[in-house]
Amino acid sequence: MKTFYSLITLVGLVACNPQGQEGASTIERTVEAFRQALVDADTAALERLTAASLSYGHSSGIVESKEEFIRTLATGASNFLSIRLSDQQITTSGDVAIVRHQLEAETADAGKDPATIRLQVMTVWQRADGQWKLLARQAVR
Is residue 64 classed exposed, middle or buried when 0-12, 13-18 and 19+ CB atoms within 10 A define those classes? Predict the structure, then answer.
């Protein structure tokens, strides 16, 4: 019986761990900063928020490196007028976080009529030097 109560106490401590809550809060803030950097086409922020080995997958099947991804936004080939995220779920394991959400955006990509897109997105973030960096992203319609 004593072991049972010890186990219940341990589970309660883990569930209420402020470090875990702080970690989720930190990744939420990072995802929001990334969302805003996409809308602003803020290349300096995108540089800071993405890993050197970024694999950025679009719903069209195109996969870009970090350099290609940032260049596409900087040139206006990909242009987000607004982005709204919903139904966000965050799972962390050590220095890795998986974030899933629905993305609804207004776009005005170069050479195309303005459009509204709705996607399911999964991003993988890695904590390096105290900061979350986007390592991979994949979107599907």
Answer: middle
Burial 76-105 (b: 16+ CB within 10 A, else e): eebbbeebebeeeebebeeeebebebebeb
- pTM listed for this prediction: 0.81
Q: In this predicted model, what pLDDT tens digit does every residue of 68-90 receive, in sequence order?
A: 999 999 999 999 999 999 999 99
The total of structural domains in the chain comes to 1
Q: What is the CATH number of the domain that holds 41?
A: 3.10.450.50
Enclosing H/E stretch for 121: strand 115-128
Range of the domain at 79: 2-140
* pLDDT 10s digits, 5-44: 433 333 333 333 333 445 678 999 999 999 999 999 999 9
